Structure to design on (245 residues):
């Protein structure tokens, strides 16, 4: 769905949601196909009269949202819509929007089947939050420079770290990047020994305005911080792992 206008009708959304949460089930136990008539919040079998509820066995089971509103909610979350825009679309309050955004983040599965990054990989660390309030979080990230041809996206790894010492940064790189890859960083001293660990290493001096080599990972920090400020009005320091996931 490329826009909200592409979201199907309520009965179609009920059918899609039920099939997605019940392993593609489209027929009753008796073998008759499940019908999804307009005006009802459930599907049913014309033969054995059994009813099928699409929100059952999901974290939406106790919500008053219609199935079409659930699709609108997910679309807005995936497209980084602000709570104000979401409120105008769904007609629900800000506390409910924040609660549903939290639920979606919490139930997002962690997919680590990609394994380690390889090729040309940009690495950088960034500070989230304000130091003077004691809520600053350090995040280190690594992103492949070239797109994956199968997904047309760049593979990205993010991790919260306690400091930017050499041991911490090297442990992240060894865990997430294959040896032999070209690691591109700024001139932070914590990256100085990467060549001894089996990596090719290229540095760009940010203090002199040399930023082109780490442009993709720097852009990632900019997008993350802009989105969080748009959604919350600040950089949240609680449940940060869920945001990274």
């Amino acid at each position: 769905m490329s826009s909200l206008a592409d979201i199907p009708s309520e009965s179609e959304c009920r059918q899609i949601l039920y099939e997605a949460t019940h392993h593609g089930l489209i027929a009753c136990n008796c073998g008759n196909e499940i019908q999804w008539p307009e005006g009802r919040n459930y599907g049913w079998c014309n033969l054995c009269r059994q009813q099928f509820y699409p929100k059952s066995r999901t974290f939406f089971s106790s919500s008053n949202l219609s199935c079409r509103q659930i699709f609108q909610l997910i679309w807005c979350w995936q497209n980084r819509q602000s709570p104000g825009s979401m409120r105008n679309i769904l007609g629900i309050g800000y506390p409910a929007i924040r609660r549903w955004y939290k639920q979606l983040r919490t139930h997002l599965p962690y997919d680590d089947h990609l394994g380690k990054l390889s090729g040309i990989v940009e690495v950088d660390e960034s500070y989230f939050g304000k130091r003077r309030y004691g809520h600053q979080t350090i995040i280190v990230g690594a992103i492949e420079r070239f797109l994956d041809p199968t997904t047309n996206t760049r593979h990205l790894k993010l991790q919260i770290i306690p400091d930017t010492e050499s041991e911490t940064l090297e442990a992240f790189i060894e865990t997430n990047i294959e040896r032999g890859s070209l690691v591109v960083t700024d001139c932070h001293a914590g990256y100085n020994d990467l060549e001894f660990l089996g990596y090719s290493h290229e540095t760009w001096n940010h203090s002199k305005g040399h930023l082109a080599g780490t442009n993709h990972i720097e852009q990632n920090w900019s997008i993350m911080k802009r989105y969080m400020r748009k959604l919350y009005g600040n950089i949240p320091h609680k449940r940060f792992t869920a945001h990274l996931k």
